[in-house]
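2024-03-11 09:14:02 INFO worker-7 job=invfold-0412 stage=load source=structure_tokens
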């Protein structure tokens, strides 16, 4: 597989490579599509956001990988900027960090300014917009999602789910991922008679707990897994208290992993059906497809299962792009640091739309490359939870994390003295599994040698930018 940075003269330069890419790509014969307004400057957009899908799950999604990575771009350093559902999804829609869009926990979805969202820009620009699946946590299923013309909004569940279908709340029998797939296919099929370019946001509940698989995959054997060095970590004395006290075992991690992989098999089937539909419609070239997990998940790493922690399995996610008409159809790997905040800028860049609200993210269709990423999370409530609010400076070769005393209330308002309670530093080249916190018992001279003062200053600046 080739390696590419997608760098160059920006979107127009990338578009100029489309003919060369197409010349080397073999696709099945396609029926002539109807006249459409979509094209290289106004691509259709298919955005797929899975739930709690960690990076190491490609075994479960071979069709997705074959299409979007094998014939598009796999980003090997894909992240989310807050490893929690509602903040991350709000960053996908707005292109902004949680400290800027205001959705700091799963109870504060109303804080998202709908005017700043990707769906608003596309709808205003004449796109036909659709949402199929989960939207934002704490969103009342009876409330129509703004700026989506058509929708089947799911109250999170796997079987016989409650959906808001274009304003009518009802139960739809069957497996939720299949319902979402079929609703999406019907939306795509309407382009036979509607010439507008379209935006379909597809958000299956998989692979969120309780990880219920479709019946045909309930007994699927998954590859054996003996964990990784962080499962379990023998000595956690250099970690914060909530990690020192964690009790999840390798068997716990194996169980969660197997359930997630089985639930994702149906997502893979759905993605394949989307590709087949686009091929039948003649829309493969002129559709920008983005695939990302809203956060990762620990499989007993450091004794933890779940998300919302500053360790790599929680904030690293699968991230793929495909857009043959825009030059992204060759099967490349891009090692730039990219994140959920880059999705809205990417889509608007491809569509030639200039947002009226600044983004924190950047479109990877041009040459932009960041040297690090801010990842952040807030503790909700003022109770006795052991895990404090934290923020982290994440680069390819190192990660520096600070834990603080602040917390958020139900409205997302932050209360804080700003006191740093604990710190971690990992050399990711020498210690990719984050086993040795270099700040444990470090002297001031040790910290200076590691560059901690500069990292702390950079993190402080990121948190207020």
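2024-03-11 09:14:09 INFO worker-7 stage=emit residues=465
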């Amino acid at each position: 597989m080739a390696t590419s940075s997608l760098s160059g003269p920006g979107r127009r330069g990338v578009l100029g490579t489309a003919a060369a890419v197409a010349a080397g790509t073999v696709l099945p014969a396609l029926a002539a599509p109807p006249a459409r307004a979509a094209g290289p400057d106004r691509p259709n957009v298919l955005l797929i956001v899975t739930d709690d899908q960690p990076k190491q799950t490609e075994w479960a999604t071979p069709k997705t990988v074959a299409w979007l990575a094998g014939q598009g771009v796999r980003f090997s350093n894909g992240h989310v900027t807050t490893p929690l559902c509602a903040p991350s999804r709000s960053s996908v829609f707005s292109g902004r960090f949680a400290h800027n869009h205001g959705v700091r926990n799963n109870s504060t979805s109303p804080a998202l300014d709908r005017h700043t969202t990707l769906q608003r820009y596309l709808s205003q620009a004449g796109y036909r917009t659709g949402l199929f699946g989960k939207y934002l946590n704490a969103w009342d299923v009876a409330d129509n999602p703004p700026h989506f013309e058509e929708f089947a909004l799911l109250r999170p569940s796997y079987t016989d789910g409650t959906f808001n279908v274009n304003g009518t709340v009802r139960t739809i029998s069957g497996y939720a991922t299949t319902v979402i797939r079929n609703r999406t296919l019907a939306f795509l099929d309407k382009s036979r008679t509607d010439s507008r370019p379209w935006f379909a946001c597809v958000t299956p509940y998989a692979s969120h707990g309780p990880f219920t698989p479709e019946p045909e995959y309930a007994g699927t054997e998954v590859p054996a897994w003996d964990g990784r060095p962080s499962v379990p970590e023998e000595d956690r004395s250099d970690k914060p208290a909530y990690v020192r006290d964690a009790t999840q075992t390798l068997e716990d991690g194996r169980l969660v992993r197997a359930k997630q992989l089985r639930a994702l098999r149906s997502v893979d089937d759905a993605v394949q059906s989307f590709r087949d539909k686009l091929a039948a419609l003649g829309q493969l070239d002129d559709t920008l497809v983005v695939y990302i997990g809203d956060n990762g998940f620990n499989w007993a790493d450091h004794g933890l299962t779940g998300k919302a922690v500053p360790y790599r399995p929680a904030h690293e996610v699968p991230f793929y792009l495909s857009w043959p008409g825009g030059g992204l159809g060759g099967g490349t790997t891009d090692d730039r640091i990219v994140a959920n905040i880059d999705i809205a800028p990417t889509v608007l860049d491809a569509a030639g739309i200039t947002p009226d609200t600044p983004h924190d993210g950047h479109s990877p269709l041009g040459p932009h490359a960041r040297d690090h990423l801010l990842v952040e999370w807030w503790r909700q409530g003022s109770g006795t939870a052991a895990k404090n609010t934290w923020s982290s400076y994440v680069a390819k070769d190192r990660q520096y994390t600070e834990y603080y005393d602040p917390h958020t209330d139900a409205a997302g308002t932050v209360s804080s003295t700003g006191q740093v309670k604990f710190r971690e530093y990992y050399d990711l080249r020498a210690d990719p599994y984050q086993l040795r916190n270099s700040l444990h018992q470090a002297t001031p001279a040790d910290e200076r040698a590691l560059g901690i003062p500069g990292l702390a200053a950079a993190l402080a600046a990121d948190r207020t930018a």
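2024-03-11 09:14:09 INFO worker-7 stage=report msg="The chain has a mean pLDDT of 90."
2024-03-11 09:14:10 INFO worker-7 job finished
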